[in-house]
Amino acid sequence: MMGPSHALSGAAGWLAGSLVLQNVAHLHQTPAQLAIGTVMCAGGALLPDMDMSGRVTSNKGGATVAHTFGVISLFVAECVEKISLGIYQLTRGPHDPDRENGHRTFTHTLPFNVAVGAGTFELCLHYGKTAVLSVLFFTFAMALRGMFEKWAQRAGWLVVTLTAAMATFLAYERLPAGRGYPILGLALGVGGLIHILGDMLTRHGCPVLWPFTVGRGRRWRCVGVPDAVAVKVGGKVEVYLLRTAFWLVSLVAASRLLYEPVLHRLNIKV
Ligand SMILES: [Zn+2]
Question: Fewest C-beta atoms under 10 Å: which of 1, 152, 210, 268?
Fold first, then answer.
């Protein structure tokens, strides 16, 4: 799937999950925590595509997320793609095919995305303010790229970076001291897992069974829905149907979650 679809699916997934947790486990979040978690999950849902290299010298190619910080992030994407390809070559089974590109390999596995979530969780727990600010800043910048792609393209990476810095400051002010931070790691990790689910709807699928060897010595077998119902990347089903569905889920879940806090703030009793 393309960047904006991934970002939207992350936002929809986080809001829908929060609604379920509120109803089932009575886990209530403040509107600010909810907003921060949603943006973090949207940003996290873009991260796995940092393995798509482009042309750094001409600032072209690469996934949406690779353009977050201009040529700098495009260069990072180049490195991530090469490292992913290296991991593929080192761990491939005897029947895994030859590859020349690392896209949809290591960053599209379950261990990678769980590690990103757990690593961020630990980082925020042990390094406090500096880690929290850095995590918020990088993820907000990615989320802005994904959710407002056309605006971000027009505005350029410098405006996106400054907007992300401002949003980071506002978000940090609203996160409770001493707690509320683990949610950052959780949202980032969940976003990555939602990305994998999204890519599994396409013809190529994702290597979700890695590092286990399954059938005829293949460790990097890509798993996804059958070809007959697979979604074409950037096709009409993805752009119109899936994105509309993600918007609807987000709006319904957000209105259900924010209904009571907003009424309470306005001092309206129901
Ligand atoms: Zn992907």
Answer: 268
